[in-house]
Amino acid sequence: MIDYRSDTVTKPTPEMISFMQLAEVGDDVYGEDSTINTLEKEVANLFGHEAALYCPSGTMTNQIAIKTHTQPGDEIICHAYSHIYQYEGGGIAFNSAVQTNLIHTDRGVFAPADVEERIRPDDVHFSRTSLVSIENTCNKGGGTCWELDEIKAIESVCRNNNLKLHLDGARVFNAIAAKHYTPQEIGTKFDSISVCFSKGLGAPVGSVLIGNTDFIKQAKRWRKVMGGGMRQAGYIAAGALYALRHHRERLQEDHKRMELLINGLKNLPFVEHCQTPETNIGIVHFSDSQTVDRILSHLKNNAILTSAMGPKTIRFVTHLHHTDKDIERTIDTLTEFA
Ligand SMILES: *Cc1c(COP(=O)(O)O)cnc(C)c1O
C-alpha cells in the first residue's frame, strides 16, 4: 500500500522505537519527566525562545496559543485557509470566544496591507483585534512557504499595532528545508509557535508550543484545563526528540519525490492543472468530480491511497515511508487510467 493521504500516517522507525523504549520518564504534570523537559528545552533553543510546552496535538497547541493571547470578544486576523479556522472544530469560538477576520488569497500567504486594513479602531462598536496567525507551510494552500521577508513585513505591522503574532508551524520544518532559513531566523519573528512532530518528522504523537517564560506558564494552565496534562508521556515525547535530532534533513527527499510525482502527472490528458509543489504536498486539479471519484477508486484498486481536497481536486502528500519506486508505480498506475 502506498499512502499519500497525509504525512500524519507515518509510523516510528525501528531506531525511533528503540530510543523511545529507553526514555527516562517521570510525572510531567509535576514537571518531572526529563525526556519532555529535554525536548521542550531543545525546541525552545532551536527557535530562539525561552520556553516550550509538549502537548498531545497541534490542534491543542494552536488553541492554547489563541486562548493565551486573547480575551473573549477579541478578533483574530488569519487566512481563510488556516487550519485554526478550517479544521479545529470551531475551537476558536468554543475555547476562546473569539471571532475571525479572514484574508482570502490564492496560496495562503498574505501581505501587510491585508492585515492593516483589518485592524479594528479602538471603538466600543468593534471587536478588539489582538492576534494575527500565519501558517507555514500552508496546508490548504498546497504546502506553500512564506519567505522570510514576507514574515518580517507582517511582524512589523503587528509590532506597530500592538498585536501578537502566532505561527502555526505544523510543517515549519518543511518550510525551513525548502527555503533554507534557520529555525531561529523564523522563530524570533513570532510571539508563539506551534510545531508538529507527528507529521513529516514521523513521530507517533505530539506537538510543541513555543514562547517566552510568562506565555508558557499561562499556556501550561490552559493545557491542564483542556485535559492535556500528561504523566509519563516521555515515552512518546522521545519519538519527537528523536525526530527533531534525526529526521529534519531528510524532509528534502519528500520534496524531491513530490516534484517527481507532479512532473509525471501534469501532462496526463485527464489532468487539468497541477499546482507547482513547494514542499511535500501536491494539489492536482481535474475537470469534474466524476473523474476525481474514478481516479480515487482506480488508485485504491492498485493499493494507492490518497484523498480529495474539494470536488475537483486531489491532494497527494509524500513522507518518510515513500521510495522513488513508489512514485514511479503511482505515475504508471495513473498513466494507465483512461
Ligand atoms: C495537522 C495540522 C495541525 C494540527 O493537527 P493535529 O492533528 O491536531 O496535530 C495544525 N495546523 C496545520 C497546518 C496542520 O496541518
Describe this structure in words.
With 338 residues, the protein is an alpha/beta fold. The chain folds into two domains: 13-246, Aspartate Aminotransferase, domain 2 (3-Layer(aba) Sandwich); 250-337, Aspartate Aminotransferase, domain 1. 42% of the residues lie in helices and 18% in strands. It has 14 helices and 13 strands. The protein has helices at 14-21, 34-46, 58-69, 83-86, 91-96, 112-116, 148-160, 172-179, 183-187, 213-225, 234-246, 251-265, 289-301, 324-336; strands at 2-3, 51-55, 74-79, 99-103, 128-135, 164-169, 192-196, 207-211, 271-274, 281-286, 304-305, 307-308, 313-317. A seven-stranded mixed beta sheet has the order 2-8-7-6-5-3-4, with helices on both faces. Strand 9 (271-274) and strand 10 form a beta hairpin. Helix 1 (14-21) crosses helix 11 and helix 3 crosses helix 10. The chain is globular. The protein binds pyridoxal-5'-phosphate (PLP). Pyridoxal-5'-phosphate binds next to helix 3.
Q: Kindly report the name of the CATH homologous superfamily of the largest domain.
A: Type I PLP-dependent aspartate aminotransferase-like (Major domain)
Mean pLDDT: 97
| CATH fold field value of the largest domain | Aspartate Aminotransferase, domain 2
Count the domains.
2
- In the CATH hierarchy, the architecture of the largest domain is 3-Layer(aba) Sandwich
End-to-end distance: 22 Å
